[in-house]
Specification:
The chain is an alpha+beta fold. The chain has eleven helices and 26 strands. Strand 23 and strand 24 form a beta hairpin. The longest helix has 27 residues.
């Protein structure tokens, strides 16, 4: 790791123009002016060159999930400027908290944790792009200039990106890891945009370029720590570094930065991604952004000895994005936050070159369907632990995704063996997405929805799943994952030790693309246990119980049933339960009713919620089958889309149960026991 020498500080009396690349012939007249000491002339020459030079990078043709501005593409004469007007009026929203700022911005004590990301001027710059109204540009430039004045680069001396965070409601220092790269994404994009505007003075551009150079140099000194930690901040830093290289490529350090960034990219992708293309953090919201950035970067980096390997990873990332895609448009929101449409996961410019043009199908393009339905693909090693099965690629498809892997390196949730189900154009069973991390609305009700009891999971004597195994895997998973013409079979397990001497195995059989048979097999050194088997539905789903069968109806009229076939538990519906509920999350060390604590607030509530990145939890029906049961126990339910119910039958044959599983045009015959699901044949 390089020694931190604080080379980001330009020495007294040294100009950025002193570091022009001596090898660039087009900069000779500018260098001559610098050599003669005529910096005023040199600045004029350089900025004229900078305004007209070509900077062609896919990095500047992307937005970050609508958080960073779109400053390219067709202009909209009817662009909605209301958010921009709010910023101009002093109502600042930083992506989490909001505040009414009266007068000048206090860049040291503003009650906004993420103000130093520059989120306030994102809608303002978009408004200028579409309307060309100078008031928006004036506001944005003053905002940036005030920041630079309040935090001169000397204040970065002796700091580290791990420092500077207090809370979402208190100003975070600009060098903090979550501020620095996010600000540089925006800073580079705005310079790329305003360099061609006559309204922006040469002095303003020179000042911003100088600041970009210094913050880029600071990032260069600090970023390796986050890359080595496989942190999502490392991805943001690699991205930001390359943006700086594009904007500052006339200056001598940029080639060193670019080479260093390429080394960091190679290391980061190899160490932070599984070979199946999924980020080891395993929170799919963060994976979407990190994956798309890495795909873009692979295309942007120069040819090196490791380019081909990176392209293989990038292809795997695209394939994973397609495989995880729900018929309703997004991957399942395993982990923190909520997920966006699959298009956020894919760098579309390279699909043809990577041999995956079919990925465009899930983006609404008129191309061939993907050549697979289930993921991981047949013969492919499973690494991340997410498995998906579907009957086709239509928006009406029957789809399930299930988590059978490790916990992930960050933003972990108790979603072990939890699944989601979509059918008929609707999301029925969901992995409940969290709210935003913070908000300022009067009715704010924040929760990350992390504990296991909130997911489609099993609870034993009040003990929900908790972290008791490695966060990552260093070898492919060995979960049964069998794909045949008429069925798909998945199985995995979880042990509640050391809190409870109980093993839970979940098996899922997808019958000819028509419905699922789900078995929860509970064994261990207990005679009896209080069992809870939870099914969390989406907020818009209407749920009723008839003879312990769950009948669910979506807003579009689609239906789904959960039919108990083995077990004697009783169904209880919870919708928006605010009563505190006990959990053993996250480490199984103690029982608590504080589900999470942040910003001085305890998150406490029961089942029946989802978040969708809102400022408050949204009531959503959860059905929990509960009861005291003798172990070993086998719970079997059929999850059946549509209004036609197959006549599933079973009979005992010694210690085995023989299942007759009809579907349109045929049936399956299979046997289950405590040992597994076996001898599946087509009748």
């Amino acid at each position: 790791m390089m020694e931190l020498t604080e080379n980001f500080l330009l020495p007294e009396g040294v100009s950025l123009l002193d570091r022009l690349d001596p090898e660039r012939s087009e900069l000779k007249t500018c260098r001559d002016a610098v050599k003669a000491g005529d910096y005023s002339k040199a600045e004029k020459i350089y900025i004229a060159h900078f305004r007209q030079k070509t900077i062609n990078s896919g990095l500047f043709r992307r937005s970050e999930a609508n958080f960073y501005p779109m400053l390219h593409g067709e202009r909209d004469p009817n662009f909605d400027t209301r958010d921009a007007e709010k910023s101009l009026s002093g109502f600042f929203f930083d992506g989490y908290a909001s505040a009414q700022i009266e007068g000048e911005v206090d860049w040291h004590n503003a009650p906004l944790g993420c103000l130093a990301r520059f989120p306030v001027i994102s809608p303002v710059m978009e408004a200028h792009y579409h309307t060309r109204d100078p008031k928006y540009l004036d506001f944005a430039l003053k905002h940036i200039e005030d920041y630079m004045s309040a935090w001169p680069m000397q204040t970065f001396s002796g700091t580290k990106p791990a420092e500077g965070w207090i809370s979402h409601y208190e100003f975070s220092k600009p060098w903090y890891w979550c501020m620095l790269p996010c600000r540089l994404w925006f800073f580079n994009s705005i310079v790329q945009y305003i360099r061609q505007l006559d309204d922006v003075s040469d002095a303003t551009l020179m000042s911003m370029l100088t600041r970009l150079y210094q913050e880029g140099a600071y990032l260069r000194e600090q970023m390796e720590t986050y890359v080595n930690a496989n942190h999502n901040g490392g991805a943001a830093m690699i991205d930001s570094m390359l943006r700086c290289c594009h904007i500052l490529d006339d200056f001598t350090p940029s080639q060193d930065w670019r080479q260093f960034d390429a080394e960091m990219l190679f290391r980061y992708i190899r160490e932070s991604f599984y070979k199946d293309g999924v980020f080891k953090e395993l929170t799919l919201n963060y994976w979407q952004h990190v994956s798309c950035r890495m795909q873009t970067m692979v295309d942007e980096m120069p040819e090196t000895d490791f380019t081909e390997e990176l392209r293989d990873y990038a292809t795997a990332m695209v394939t994973a994005a397609v495989g995880l895609h729900k018929p309703t448009g997004a991957p399942p929101p395993f982990g923190d936050r909520d997920t966006f449409h699959t298009r956020v996961s894919i760098y579309t410019d390279a699909l043809e070159r990577r041999g995956v043009p079919w990925a465009g199908h899930v983006l609404g393009e008129s191309v061939a369907e993907p050549p697979f339905k289930n993921w991981p693909l047949p013969g492919q090693d499973a690494w991340c632990g997410y498995y998906t099965m579907r009957n086709d690629w239509s928006e009406q498809a029957n789809y399930m995704a299930i988590d059978g892997g490790a916990w992930g390196t960050d933003h972990k949730h108790g979603d072990k063996l939890s699944f989601v189900v979509s059918s008929g154009g609707a999301d029925f069973l969901i992995d409940p997405s969290s709210t935003t991390y913070a908000a300022s609305e009067p009715d704010t009700f924040i929760s990350l929805l992390q504990p296991g009891f909130l997911h489609n999971s099993i609870t034993i004597d009040g003990v929900d799943v908790f972290i008791n195994s490695p966060l990552v895997t260093d070898k492919p998973l060995t979960n049964p994952w069998i794909q045949e013409d008429n069925y798909v079979l998945f199985a995995s397990d979880y042990c509640f030790e050391p809190v409870k001497p109980v093993r839970w195995e979940r098996r899922v059989l997808f019958v000819n693309g028509s419905y699922w048979l789900v078995q929860d097999v509970i064994t261990g050194d207990l005679d009896t246990a209080m069992i809870e088997q939870n099914f969390q539905f989406d907020a818009e789903i209407e749920v009723s119980i008839d003879d312990q069968t769950i009948h669910a109806t979506a807003e579009n009229g689609s239906q789904l049933s959960v039919v108990p076939l083995m077990g004697d538990l009783q169904a209880v519906i919870s919708i928006g339960d605010r009563k505190p509920h006990k959990t053993w999350w996250p480490r199984g060390e103690k029982e608590t009713d504080v589900l999470y604590h942040e910003d001085g607030n305890d998150q406490q509530h029961g089942r029946g919620w989802t978040g969708r990145l809102s400022h408050k939890l949204i009531p959503a029906p959860a059905v929990t089958y509960t009861g005291q049961a003798t172990l070993p126990l086998v719970l079997t339910v059929a999850i059946i889309p549509g209004d036609v119910k197959p006549k599933i039958t079973s009979e005992q044959d010694g210690d085995e149960t023989v299942w007759h599983l009809p579907y349109k045009g045929g049936s399956l015959l299979g046997r289950t026991s405590l040992g597994g699901f076996e001898n599946i044949t087509v009748q």
